[in-house]
Amino acid sequence: MDKEILPYGYTIFRHDRDSRGGGVMIAVADSIQSNLIQLDYDIEMITVSLFNAHVSLSCLYIAPNSSEQYRHDTLKCLNRVVSDTSLSLVIGDFNSPDINWATLSASSPFSLSLCDFIFSHNLNQLVLRPTHVRGNILDLVLTNQNNRIDTIQVDDSVCSAHSDHSLILFSIGTNSKRVMKPNKRVIFDYTKADLDNLHSYLLGLHPPPACDVNSVWYFLKDSILMARSLFIPSVHRTPRTDPPWFTKEIRHSLKCLRSLHRRYHHHPTSHLSSRISSLESSTLTHISSAN
């Protein structure tokens, strides 16, 4: 049945609705390594890991008449699949037309919870044009690395002809700079050296006859380095790229502060000002205790 939808050359991941019609689907070209991530709840959502788990892609649908428990389960699944390190993408029809994306504010309980989820994970919502014939933004693209997503296009041509929703087009950039891992450093533990064998090895060295001073120097240096590698244990350690006090919690707090300041710039309120002051105070406390 999958081949009736797409030709050969694609891996199809589907979650069909029990009733007639409906559901969600992700189609991945066979040339891209993909694996289905199992979710713990029976909701209309699929999550697939791509490119050796460097990208997670989730597709979901939330019906307008969904129960409070269904929406709660959806947010729990999203909390599980959105990563802090790799690229995470969540796309689908959230049916939350009351969200003001400029201020990340809303009126309904679920939309408020969704805004809190987006804020806490430092996500960006990239669709800024209406995606429904009634002029609402219902279909969203959420990501934690918006610099990896090329320009979003909302195609209205499919509306009325085949659907009351617009088509959303985007691509994932592959030309981002690769972060080079620092070289591991070798540390020798001289307190655990095999001194007896080291002493015997050095006493048995005999420089070649009739050598100039440079040749003798290189002979001694190479012999000592060889003795160190043979009789002194070593460990490999990766140097830290961040200072020791810059913890994961502090990094997350700073990201939240940037998001709050951005929201306050577009829509200044006393509530946001209070949250900024509180978060700044707690962040400074964390930094002071970490130093």
UniProtKB/TrEMBL annotation:
Domain Endonuclease/exonuclease/phosphatase, residue spans: 57-168
Name of the gene this protein is made from: 109583601
A single GO molecular function term of this UniProt record: catalytic activity
Designated name of the protein: Endonuclease/exonuclease/phosphatase domain-containing protein
InterPro entries from the UniProt entry: Endo/exonu/phosph_ase_sf, Endo/exonuclease/phosphatase
GO cellular component assignments: extracellular matrix
